[in-house]
Design brief:
With 501 residues, chain A is α/β, with parallel strands linked by helices. The first copy, chain A, has helices at 33-45, 80-91, 127-145, 147-150, 172-189, 206-218, 250-265, 293-305, 347-355, 423-429, 438-447, and strands at residues 2-5, 12-13, 21-24, 50-53, 64-69, 72-77, 95-96, 98-100, 113-114, 119-120, 155-157, 195-200, 224-230, 237-238, 243-244, 274-280, 312-315, 339-340, 344-345, 361-366, 369-373, 379-384, 396-402, 407-416, 451-459, 464-470, 475-482. Chains A, B, C, D: Residues 11-455 form the Glycosyl hydrolases family 39 N-terminal catalytic domain.
């Protein structure tokens, strides 16, 4: 039983970088109604500022085509779908965090692809055509959305070029060439558009240094640095339906944020923003951890502290409407999404929604607790009990003393745990229906609502003490509002005359 | 601890008369957006067939007016608002259960009014004009909605004429005259329109007999008999803000249903339908009981058994958008509504929503339990623990054995109690804000959701036994679905490899 | 045939004061669904900033009540409805332009009322209670909406106190007393809230001077001056259903704007803003002119030039959901509304929607034409042909030369006239159905759409000449967009191979 | 100038078979939001009963997959997407008209594909797996939607097997084998599910006879016969962007309907229903005719008379959200859709909407006119002026005498022509923007509204004569309603006192 004394002295600003950006399945999916329905709810209840995903140049969106005229192939740029997609994003209050990739089939130098949807990961077969394409899309975005708007969109070049499955041979020199060509093409349209990279993933931090040196040496524009972060260890079981991994401690991810930030600080570009353009526990879209309360409890610390090190970090992804490993084969399948299929909120969804209720003033923060104050004086805290050891079950008790002036207080809590707001568990009880009926979906939706409790407390010594016991992997939101008690204005009120409370 | 054995033998049909009709504040309120928003939700989640309320002829809807031409007043019938109102009802799947009343000011023979909105309760000053009015509205309804539709609308003449505040002097002869004039005017437009009365309230059952004798003797048309039912005793405290009463046992209301049914059976019209066109615990719109779980637990038996005695019984009313005692003065004020102000579902709302999930086949029923089966074989039950004694707190434990074949079952429960789905309690903790902020309303909405739990059980001896403990005034819905277990189809599934459940 | 040469030299800003504020029927109507549906459309297609109407303190909203405690009456302030109303306005992007009035029945010193809805127009019977009420509502608005928001709301004291039907005896001294008491009560809650008056109507301009002198002499706060403006002459026929009047020339209204502005300039408060808090052609809600194209053609000049003289002018009113002369008795009845009953746009609605498409740069303006340029270079003009003489029918022809550079242009026009977008005429053809069926309403909606035409023109000498012939009371919107011609990009295109154009 | 005398004698029922079914782009597109938005509008304003499209078994919906277990591939049926799609259809009031096809890649015996989306058109590589697949989907549909529902869905086997690009080698014997295997697999799940074929296209009517003989000989189940119909001649110009063809006369299509009906009548199955499961003018999705008024005027006769010969005929297709020739490359591109991209109604859309207003009683019909009566006595007619000769421009005048009793009549017309409701023309004036801006789309939408006119006529000799002049390819809806004239009820009405009409 730990006792925590929140003094409220020396408050500082809590940086809300956790909600700057969110990841998405390939952009072509953004034509789908379910995708947009999920995103609308996410924006209403969480409200990210940017969205980033693969596939801007993939053939399903179909921007790059060729038409044969008099025996000569010439490029045709088709913006029918990308206009529809970006219109949808902007309508929902989201700006594109542009990711340039993958390679249109007609421009590809080789046949290597990634994912069920076969994104081509090879360099262009013709750099002039590539530059023309990049200029054309940049120009089109400015024409349609206005230069003022487009100047707020970061353009990140490619995705994870340090991995052989995302960039042919993980060829660093080839990437630097692609980066240079692409960045210069973008800047030729408007020099103030922000470009960046190298969007690497896994343990290749030297790419960061090499990349910045390259930019310096070659005088290539760079406006931000980006990287990804996943904390899962190598899989110990891989099956057609599931992929099982252990996780590193969450501290490891924060440490990685800090390390790379330090590398940038030490480079020729110490002031560049640093964006984590993807992160999650596991990098596998069929790792069941994503459907669990553990995932939420695990990420709580990342959301709480990540913003101290990086300018944005983008959870991968908002929805299980996702096709990297083919069409999802079951209601729950270990997908990345905050929102599961059939519009069912997963525990991690609520973690984000809880963080969205925090105030801007940070009063206290430790490994499993964050306490903030809102503009109107309300205190909002989130507390969690991460238990990573298999089978372990220990609850965690703590007391938190909050500095409030005397008076009545209304405390309400919402909680997610193995017992509540855990539709994955309920779905297992239903017999794991792959394609649940509407009635089953209704039940799952109801099961996905956080547990609510409230109480009224009188504070007499300028201190409100909360005694809390959290079950395994519980995440709890606490909201403390000062009560403006109007009870006395009800004339003749007598609760004793009613047989219930 | 009682043990209940449901055999499932000799099942019969459960008559869903509890959802035939719902009461409403005066019809003029149906122009309001909030009213319609509440009604839309009620219809989606409960789905009544008819709606009945006062004030069809009240001056706010303004059907009856007079225009002076050359010094002579002549009637003008204005259907602007009533068309809008009935259009709204029909769009929501509700037919009007017409109540003819109260008296337009220009037709009133005296000034006596009722309610803050001043419904005039005196006989017409000119029966010819009254008949013309009744014919005009009937004719208009047929023109606008078609004769086929209007033939499904019952026309009830006046409201509670046996009470002096609803009908001047509670003059029975005067009522019979009004009834005859009105019924005959309606039938003159179309002889198959259903007319009825006497819509009495309180302990004046002899009106029923007298009314039917009058119809017989005078050869006056009558197609149904109606009555109201409230089970509250005289108030023991009346204050500007609240009205406190004890309640009779629920059995008393059912007994009253049966008694009147018997009186009809014994009359010259033994086959007439019998409608309870209003019922509730208390007849006061500022009795806090309406906001409580007690109200729900109390009414459970009425919903369960009332339909055995009457053809419809209409809960008074669906929403706290209501003005009989002036504009509501606080979020919770003891109003009749299933739905409170600001779209907050009250416990009794959920009682109705629970009943709406029952199946059509009745397997078992006792004082605090009803067990049904749906067409697809699912078993749905509602169990409750009515505790009327002040201060008493005893929980109730029972076991229920259900006849199901061997296999896996998924049981889900939703529950309302003093602890859960009790926004009235939470509102008290908030300091009883009369006009809550949007944030407070959000919290109240969240607090109003029933508590959800679920589990999976394996049945091995053709019997599923549920062990239940209900807290004071808890009402619980139980849904038992046979599981079609797909677990084995997940290749490589191994829940032990994930650190949570 | 006039020839107009628009040079585009010395452009200035077109002040969009015409859309600062819109009038509404009494605020209590804002609870109605139809009212809000109309307002939502108005805001989407026109987009006013403020809304002003009577009845804030009227008893249907019920803010002021008294409760008897121990034989003593004490005030009770009920914000249930006004919160709902202001929430709705703000949700639709509208701020309240507060009008303090009329008198709650319990505070009235006499029984004189106005309108079918009986607004009491007498001074308070107790100035202390009045001040307490004013403070209470001001305080409540700040608590609910925040001080920052409320500081953007003007508070106008009373309505048309110079008319005996709006203020008992049109007693100027009594009004000044009310003004002082009210303004000081408001300022006591927050000194920066804007207060103003005297909201007079008709030919009593000396009230303006007297009012400002009074404020100066008595040191009473005043932050703006307000007045109303109607241009109808005394009625020549008054019937139960209709009220007929001739109109003054539109110039007369503009002259009145200018005169009062000058009076303010010459006062001790030369810098005060001046708001026309009501204007229209006729002040009668049953003058058929409001339903006609004439009304639109007449007001075009007011919208075009009014903003040069006043800081806002508020058309009275946005919708025929209105009850001053009782519930509307027919689909079209001469109501003030831009939007008629059943969501049917009237010609004047389109006038406002046309003005909403104008650019901010004013290129040219005369009596029947306004030409503007938008930020993107598009030219948008409105031209009209006001014909006030009865029976007269002359069309008007003109040519307009616009300064545009060489190239292709797309010109589209929308037009309202006696023939098109004139649902009033169509309704007459339908037999003037008072309460039209849904099918008739659908036809009226379709008839209410402006006539659309478009063409493509090639400009070769830096000048685009439009030859226009307008029918009687036609109002036409002209939009000229430079064409970015993509025709050549369609390979193999050959329009001659298709049998139509 | 023709004179047409409609006597109204011997009326018969107008068979509404034209609205039984509608075509769609491949089913996978039904996941898209725009697709569903278009379909929602179509259903509201036209209201088809069934929807039919390709691609049920195509790999983008992904029903058929294989999973390797212990080195053995076994089938996995994924219903995630098809459930979503059929749920959407049913929510919109549409039942699937099932088309079994094309071949999942994993079951294909060869690599031949059709369309940009690469539908495989080869026989199964393993008939056992194919039968299992067919059974599995049929069984799944019954489980999810209920047997009662699925029994109303026709199952058509394959699409246009008589064409080499739709069925490898157009191998008839291979098709018959596929048909037999598939039909029997379906019937093995439920013997009452309707199966049919052969869904041929073009001039291969002998397939009909052969198919029915085959069924008879082999005792293969067959419940309906299906065929397609297009009336375009071979192309005279084919370009990357457009495909130009002349059209046969519309009579030719009707003759084809009749011929095949006769073949069925003469077969061993004379009572089988006959469905035209696709028809249009041109079979090319880039023939500009589809965007024109000509297309509407051409099809009018088909809609008017087609239902006399066939049980359903399904226009191909409802929307330009369609990908057979890749992502559409421009706003207008000659697509099949009733609805163009960006929710713009094309002329043929209105043709269907006009037909949807016709009554059930057929009073008169000729080549360019259909006159009907509605249940309420309203007369509704459609008249058109098809001009197929290039360059020709002649208007057509006619008079129509309608048998109505004396009284006042309100006549309203809606019209589409080269001038009105022709967004294709307006888009050309805009410079044919491939990816129009939102402002351009708004203009196009406005331009797409039919021209409306109305008038009132007094009938004195039991005959209403309409004098009509139609421009080239105009299609006009005429609605004649008897007027219930309320003019006299307006007291004091005097239209002469208002300066406009």
């Amino acid at each position: 039983m730990s006792e925590i004394q929140v003094t409220g002295e020396n408050p500082r600003t809590f940086p809300a970088h956790w909600k700057k950006c969110i990841g998405t399945g390939r952009l072509g999916l953004a034509l789908q109604k379910d995708y947009l329905d999920h995103l609308k709810t996410v924006q209403k209840e969480i409200g990210f500022s940017y969205i980033r995903g693969h596939g801007l140049l993939h053939d399903d969106i179909g921007i790059y085509r060729e038409i044969e005229v008099d025996g000569v192939k010439r490029p045709f740029y088709n913006f029918t779908y990308i206009d529809r997609i970006f219109d949808s994003f902007l309508d929902l209050g989201l700006k594109p965090f542009i990711e340039i990739g993958f390679m249109p089939k007609l421009l590809a130098s080789d046949q290597q692809t990634i994912f069920a949807w076969e994104g081509n990961v090879t360099p262009p077969n013709d750099y002039q055509k590539w530059r023309d394409l990049i200029k054309a899309i940049t120009q089109h975005f400015i024409e349609r959305y206005g230069v003022k708007e487009v100047l707020t969109w970061p353009f990140e070049i490619w995705n994870e070029p340090n991995l052989v499955n995302f960039w042919k041979d993980a060829d660093k020199e080839a990437y630097f060439k692609l980066y240079k060509m692409t960045a210069e093409a973008i800047k030729s349209v408007h020099p103030e558009i922000e470009v960046g990279g190298p969007a690497i993933c896994g343990g290749s931090d030297h790419w960061i240094t090499d990349f910045l040196s390259f930019c310096k040496t070659e005088n290539v524009p760079v406006d931000f640095v980006s990287r990804h972060a996943y904390t899962s260890k190598p899989p110990h079981k891989v099956t057609p339906d599931y992929y099982y991994q252990e996780l590193e401690e969450p501290e490891k991810m924060l440490q990685e944020f800090e390390n790379v930030r330090q590398m940038i600080n030490d480079s020729d570009y110490p002031d560049l923003p640093f964006h984590i353009t993807e992160y999650n526990t596991s990098y596998s879209p069929i790792n069941p951890v994503h459907d669990t309360t553990l995932n939420a409890a695990y990420l709580a610390k990342i959301l709480s502290e990540g913003g101290e090190h990086v300018d944005s970090f983008s959870y991968w992804t908002f929805s299980d409407v996702f096709e990297e490993l083919d069409v999802p084969k079951a209601q729950f399948h270990g997908g990345f999404g905050l929102m599961g299929l059939n519009h069912i909120r997963k525990p991690t969804y609520h973690l984000f929604a809880f963080f969205n209720r925090l105030g801007a003033k940070l009063l206290y923060r430790d490994d499993q607790l964050i306490v903030t104050e809102k503009e109107n004086g309300d205190i909002v805290a989130i507390v969690w009990n991460l238990v990573m050891n298999k089978g372990e079950k220990h609850d965690r008790s703590l007391s938190v003393q909050l500095p409030v002036s005397n008076g009545l207080y209304f405390t309400s809590t919402q909680s997610i745990s193995e017992k509540h707001a855990n539709p994955w568990r309920v779905w297992k009880e239903q017999g794991r229906p792959r394609f649940p009926s509407k009635a089953q979906v209704d039940t799952l939706k109801q099961s996905a609502i956080p547990y609510f409790e409230s109480s009224q407390t009188e504070v007499t010594r300028d201190q409100l003490t909360l005694h809390l016991t959290l079950t395994k992997n519980e995440v709890r939101l606490l909201e403390i509002n000062r009560v403006n008690d109007e009870t006395d204005t009800y004339l003749g009120l007598d609760d004793h005359l009613i047989d219930t409370y």
